[in-house]
Input
Amino acid sequence: MATISSTPAHAAKDIYECPTGYACIYPSAAWGTPTHRYFRYGTYNLRNQTGVHRVFNNQTGGAKVIFCNGYNGTDCRYSLPANYYVDLNLTPINSIILRP
Output
């Protein structure tokens, strides 16, 4: 699994309307109000997430967001480290995993 090319954000705190400890998905490749916020470690299936979205990992303690092409956390390809964001085409992504 590779780490995707991403951009560092500020130190973990409530920023870009994404609370500390959360991973957030925005409706486009820009900051604004997140359409999805995830807090607990685990696997989440994505629905109706097509095109390019900004994903911000505002988790703490080095937690990662892992992007998977399959549902239920299968066929995982990329990870996003804590305090980073990426603008990513989510069309082929069907699930994400939040992991310490």
Observations:
- Residues 50 and 90 are 5 Å apart (CA to CA).
- The chain has a mean pLDDT of 92.
- The beta strands are 2-3, 7-8, 22-25, 36-38, 42-45, 52-58, 64-68, 76-80, 84-89, 95-99.
- The first strand starts at residue 2 and ends at 3.
